[in-house]
Amino acid sequence: MTGPDRRQAWRALAALGAAALAGCDRLSRSPGVVAALGSAEDLTRRAQRLLIPRTALAAEFDEADISRDFRANGTTDPDDDDYRRLAAGGFADWRLEIGGLVESPLRLSLVDLKSRPARTQITRHDCVEGWSGVAKWTGAPLGRLLDEARLMPAARFVVFYCADSLEASLDGTGQYYESIDLIDAYHPQTLLAHEMNGRPLPIAHGAPLRLRVERQLGYKMAKYVMRIEAVDSFAQLGRGKGGYWEDRGYEWYAGI
Ligand SMILES: Nc1nc2c(c(=O)[nH]1)N[C@H]1C(S)=C(S)[C@@H](COP(=O)(O)O)O[C@H]1N2
Ligand SMILES: [Mo]
Questions:
Q1: Which DSSP state fits 220?
Q2: Is the CB of 162 under 6 A from ligand 1?
Q3: What atom in ligand 1 is closest to the CA of residue 217?
């Protein structure tokens, strides 16, 4: 879309938003219109997705905006034996593997990761369940690590394997995993975070390392990351939909 076209589209959207807001107070009292408003919102969201480039930055906030009580969700204390052993040792023996379609697979300790250039950002986390929280995250930008591992041209997605299982299953499909494409993998705010609010990442929030992919919903932000793999397809993983929650019906691209 060219500049003037885009501006026009924005103006149309802004007008739509203003009209919705003006009517909101009055209309929202009638339960019958709640569903209609819901679908208008859905339309706005879709239009917004078309208009805002995927590479745009997510909003960043100030220290004063940091939530005092950032909820922990999903797994908050993995009971997997290997994880428990690593946690007991303060994650000194933990190593992050970066493999798959890369020329130079990496095996990085927390010390190694902390020696890489870091980025710090204060962002809002939105869970699909309807709650949000603002926190400050520090970590290694994923794109730099993928460059270091020398991604092969065939790589299309990056998969994150986690330590925890949310569901007991013999075939391993109960294990938490996630995947993103290379646009998100190289987005400047996509981090492998090892600090939250200036302190080592707590176990409840994914210690020792969790993904931040700020243009998407909370379930994409894999906690307890053990291994990262570059792949050309995720059809053979889990139940084939690219993530634990995607395998159970959630959208793979959870853009916000
Ligand atoms: N390994 C793992 N990662 C996970 C989850 C999980 O259960 N296990 N839950 C997801 C969901 S739904 C959300 S909202 C966030 C919660 O992160 P928090 O505990 O830091 O709030 O982690 C996501 N990543
Ligand atoms: Mo979530």
A1: G
A2: yes
A3: 14
This prediction has a pTM of 0.84
Q: What is the pLDDT of residues 107-136, one digit of tens each?
A: 999 999 999 999 999 999 999 999 999 999
- State which ligand 1 atom lies nearest to the alpha carbon of 224: 1
Non-local (6+) Cβ contacts of 163 within 8 A are 78, 80, 82, 83, 224, 226
Residue 157: CB within 6 Å of ligand 1? Answer: no
Higher pLDDT, 6 or 151: 151
Distances from the Cα of 47 to the Cαs of 123, 161, 180, in angstroms?
23, 33, 22
Ligand 1 contact via 241 beta carbon (within 6 Å): no
Residues 172-181 have a mean pLDDT of 94
Q: Which atom of ligand 1 is nearest to the CA of 245?
A: 12
